[in-house]
Amino acid sequence: MHQGVDNKLIVAKFAMHGYNIHPSAVEILKKNVNPQNIDFVISHICKLVNSFIITPDDIVSVLDTIKEFEKKVRDAEKKTKTKVEEVYKHSEGIKIRDITGRSSCEGSIEDFVAYFNSRFEKLSKILRKRIRPTPISALHRLNGEQVEVVGIVNSVRETQNNSAIIELEDKTGIVNVVATDRLKDQALELLGDEVIGVIGTVRGRNIIADRIIFPDVPMKDRAKFDFGVVFISDTHFGSKEFLQKEWNMFINWLNGECEEKKVAELAEKVRYVIVAGDIVDGVGIYPDQEKDLAILDIYKQYEFAAEQLDRIPENIKIILSVGNHDAIRQAEPQPALPKEYRDLFSKNVIHVGNPAYVELNGLKVLIYHGRSLDDIITRIPRLSYDRPHEAMIELLKRRHLSPRYGERSPIAPEKEDLLVIDEVPDILHCGHVHTYSVGVYRGVILINSSTWQSQTEFQKKVNLNPMPGNVAVYYNGGIARLRFCN
Ligand code: D5M
Ligand code: FE
Ligand code: ZN
């Protein structure tokens, strides 16, 4: 009845669990089980039967349980489908998916367990399209054999004999993965807490790795739409270092006041402006911040922000996301601004959380402020603040916006891990690091759209050189860079 699962493969899968199966039992199984669920069903059967050779009778005796199990899987799938549709809010050709109004976590131990389970489920599902994992608990029976495993990275350490050891955990156990030569370098770039696949050979209690596999994004064509989208970030309204003159030049350009004909024509195409967070400088974000503030009151900072965004032509929709300087919880995912602040802005401003999936007349943009980029740039020596889009590639490879839990990126343990990149966007837009760079990775356009704040005293101390006043403009699959700063 069901096509697609090879008899030999079924026999091998049972062998992985330490069981033999009779050929006619394989036939019964194939007739009754959806190939998509075969792995789950096999581990389920292995838990239920007592004999080491599985007979047709054994299969028949568990058929009802299997049917029930498959129904549960189908129901769960239906539920997640409707959930995704429900959470997309619609507004004039714009669809939004974020945490706003959906936060459920209280930060208890159970929340953390559920959060990491969700991360593991979502990411291992992506990996299972390419590899067939053996449960880690079954590895001890497979000494000398080649295996594929999927797990969450607990830790990575370098050893003295030119290798690295990755401690990998799945729901059934923990294993040490030994990475040598080229794989060692790859292993040392792991951040911890990401979900990866490993292909390798079992040697005693270890796996000697042949390949490390990231969930990654599939290759796709660049999205082409004939409207313009402006990407900016980190306006830091209210800061003494906010660059008013450069901002005015940007506003003038959007209003058609530009002498260069080509650049002026580009402004006419613009239908959306996206801001990737740190709208205002905030208050109490770091010690002695008052000294750096032109506007001391947070409410007044947002009033000023609203005033400045109101200078953008009315026909342009503004998508406003939040960052770590905004008046909202710090832990990611962050909901959109609270109502008292949202109400200050005009109707063409659409407030979204961080991260947020936003679909603009078909163009899929994933907005993420970018706090995890600090951790990634610090951890991987080949990356730098001058080329933040290269750090953004690491997010796509891991299909996660904040792979490393904790450090400088606090995460709220929601029941569902909303930082997983479950949908591959056309554009990934970040800010936070205050530098500008753009790139393309497997057809996904990467933009880090710098800032409107010049170097602060604090940034001078930590040797952070911002590139303010840079704007990325999407049009027809390409990105133009406009500089409103000397
Ligand atoms: O962050 C702007 C940039 O400054 C970003 O790359 C992080 C960096 N930054 C901010 N705070 C710190 C601390 N405490 N140590 C090191 N680097 C930091 P923004 O979110 O605009 O403040
Ligand atoms: Fe910022
Ligand atoms: Zn920031």
Which overall shape is indicated by the principal axes computed on the Cα atoms? elongated
Query: Strand content of the residues, in percent?
Result: 15-25%
Bound molecules: 2'-deoxyadenosine-5'-monophosphate, fe (iii) ion, zinc ion
The top-level CATH class of the largest domain is Alpha Beta
CATH architecture of the largest domain: 4-Layer Sandwich
Mean pLDDT: 90
CATH third-level topology of the largest domain? Purple Acid Phosphatase, chain A, domain 2
Q: Classify the helix fraction into a percent range.
A: 25-40%
Compute the separation of the termini in Å: 69 Å
> Spans with pLDDT under 50 lasting ≥5 residues?
80-87
Based on secondary structure, the structural category is alpha/beta
Integer tally of domains: 3
Q: How many β-strands, per DSSP? A: 20
The radius of gyration is: 26 Å
Largest sheet: 7 strands, mixed
User: In DSSP terms, counting alpha (H) and pi (I) runs of 4 or more, how many helices?
Assistant: 13
How would you describe the overall organization of this protein?
With 486 residues, this protein is of the alpha/beta class. It has three domains: 7-70, Orthogonal Bundle (Helicase, Ruva Protein, domain 3), CATH 1.10.8; 128-213, OB fold (Dihydrolipoamide Acetyltransferase, E2P); 228-483, 4-Layer Sandwich (Purple Acid Phosphatase, chain A, domain 2), CATH 3.60.21. It is 31% helix and 24% strand. It contains 13 helices and 20 strands. The strands form four sheets. The protein has a seven-stranded mixed beta sheet with strand order 3-4-14-15-16-18-17. The chain has a six-stranded mixed beta sheet with strand order 13-12-11-10-19-20. A five-stranded mixed beta barrel has the order 5-6-7-9-8. Strand 11, helix 9 (298-309) and strand 12 (317-321) form a beta-alpha-beta unit. The longest helix is centred in the first third of the chain and has 32 residues, at 56-87. Bound molecules: 2'-deoxyadenosine-5'-monophosphate (D5M), fe (iii) ion and zinc ion. Fe (iii) ion binds next to loops.
